[in-house]
Design a protein that fits this description.
Number of domains: 1
Number of strands: 9
Distance between the termini: 28 Å
CATH class: Mainly Beta
Number of helices: 6
Structural class: alpha+beta
Length: about 200
């Protein structure tokens, strides 16, 4: 992680809020030769001052097998990014850069039994699909769910540490911040608009 002041974000509430806003995360662990990683939607809660991630993954994948052997895991949440052109600065003869937000959590992953996996699937489905729709968890047949649970491993991760980088040109003067925001809004990609909106917080 790019741990450089003034970009380090140490406010735990802000880190958790960002993770909750961007719960489709990279889960990375230690494989036999190379690291292994996957991307999964997570359910995020804070219980008795402990941050808990939960979800489910397909069994017997490279990441599932690796996480079973070594349950130390890194979870990375990320934002869209925006390339910041130094021509936008009042004094442009410096390096250009990239603005983004990233939150990383470290902890141990523990896999659940069949009942726990069933509950994890129900939780994630309810979170993203909702209730009382044709695809809601309670509308799926028990035979289908029984077969599905056998191929899926539910899990929880108890977070041991969490840190973040909110790289949003905090080191620039107000006039440069305004110029960057204006150019991002003019260029207007999805990443540009996300970063511009976050940068506005430093001008209000």
């Amino acid at each position: 992680m790019y741990k450089v002041s003034p970009y380090n974000e140490k406010n735990k509430d802000k880190l958790i809020a960002f993770a909750m806003e961007n719960p489709f995360a990279f889960l990375t662990g230690i494989g036999d030769v190379y690291p292994v990683t996957t991307q999964l939607p997570l359910h995020i809660t804070e219980v008795e001052n402990k941050i808990i991630f939960s979800g489910h993954m397909m069994r017997k994948t490279d990441h599932h097998l690796a996480f079973e052997k070594n349950n130390n895991i890194l979870v990375a949440f990320y934002s869209p990014h925006a390339y910041i052109d130094a021509n936008w600065y009042e004094k442009p003869a410096v390096g250009s850069t990239v603005n983004y937000i990233s939150v990383q959590a470290k902890g141990k992953i523990n896999f659940l039994d069949e009942a726990g996996t069933y509950a994890a699937i129900n939780q994630i489905t309810g979170k993203y699909i909702g209730q009382n729709t044709a695809a809601s968890f309670d509308k799926i047949s028990e035979d289908y769910k029984s077969n599905m649970v056998k191929a899926i491993a539910g899990f929880i991760i108890e977070v041991e540490s969490i840190e973040g980088v909110f790289k949003l040109s905090q080191n620039m003067h107000a006039s440069d911040l305004e110029s960057i925001i204006n150019h991002l809004e003019t260029r207007s990609t999805a990443g540009d608009l996300f970063i511009a909106e976050r940068m506005k917080q430093f001008l209000t």
